[in-house]
Amino acid sequence: MSKRTIGILTGGGDVPGLNPCMKAVVLSALENDYRVLGIRRGWAGLLLYNLDEPATFDYYIRNLGREDVRTIDRTGGTFLHTSRTNPQRVKPSAIPDFLKNSKYGKPVDEQGTMDYTDYVLEVLEHLGIDVLVTIGGDDTLSYTVRLDKEGVPVVAIPKTMDNDVFGTDYCIGFSTAVTRSVDFITNMRTSVGSHERIGIIELFGRNSGETSLIAAYLSYVDRAIITEVPFNIDKLCHFLMEDKRANPSNYAMMTISEGAIMEGGDVVESGEADAYGHRKLGGVGAIVAEEVKRRTGQDIMYQQLAYLMRSGAPDSLDRMVAMSFGHLAIQLINRGDTGKMVALHGGKYTTVPVSMVLAGKKRVDVAAYYDIENYRPKVRDFMGVPMFLS
């Protein structure tokens, strides 16, 4: 009797903790006598796998044994690589030549976008994958939901440095991103203070301002602008000047989410929309820096932390959660309990239906954790709140 086969992939942005999670999945699976196939480049690995070209197996598919994952937990990122491919929305320019004009594509819109889910299903069957473990954010996991609806046994693991996957209190990568941010903010004080300037630090956070909120809270910056609350630039300038004058070292610091919106303005985006409908965010901090300088006459130090937040090895908390999520995923598979996403609720490991990913949008609880009037973190009552204020 052949061994059951587990497939595993990572999609979307990389975060610290992916490799420890995959190592836990692989080692736990092998201990339970499963075969494990690693799929390179996320959903792209299944879309670009050519059934008629054996060489694509070696490129996109890896048999994973103990030696293959022995040292991967010592570094950040994902050793299987990643992509933002969405097989149910493939633009004409991204369609592989061997799939053009094939029987698999279903038109999605008048621009020639195609849904190749039928082909992904055939590839999964061809590879003999019995259960698919997917590690990703809400975009990657939205396609996991689609495969679940198509009857594919799936187990999802939430990761994103923004901590905004709906259905779980915590996502792999968040703790390390906040730790990195606090370290950079603390170090940046020496330059901002030395030159008596206003420091503006822009942090990743597309739809959730949690990274800006928590980093600001932990590093005691003067003001924090989050995605959920449009801000008034004149009011912000007034606050920063007050903060600077009140500081014996004559400087002020603030954080801002990349998805923040100025009152009367729009989110700052650039470039073409990706397969999930997102354009590239970033640059609102630079705009705010120019406006603050123009309105106050003060010199500014602007720093966009960006990918530095998600680079490098994970901290201990992300290792703990990543490994625990990985082991829990295999325990679910052993019980035949698929169609689930592993999660943390109230500090305890649990599961939710994978469809929960699409049930809502996770945002900062502004009423509980943010002072709208003063643009600052403010926890109304700590009793009973989650560890990460999420």
Q: Characteristics of this structure?
A:
single chain, 390 residues, alpha/beta, Rossmann fold, 2 domains, 7-stranded mixed β-sheet, 4-stranded parallel β-sheet, elongated
Give a verbal description of the structure.
- The chain is of the alpha/beta class.
- The protein folds into 2 domains: 213 residues, Rossmann fold, CATH 3.40.50.450; 147 residues, Phosphofructokinase domain (Rossmann fold, 3-Layer(aba) Sandwich).
- 34% of the residues lie in helices and 18% in strands.
- The chain is built from 12 helices and 17 strands.
- The strands form 5 sheets. A 7-stranded mixed beta sheet has the order 3-2-1-6-7-14-15, sandwiched between helices.
- Strand 4 and strand 5 form a beta hairpin.
- Helix 1 runs parallel beside helix 11 and helix 7 crosses helix 8.
- It is elongated, with a radius of gyration of 22 Å.
- The termini are far apart.
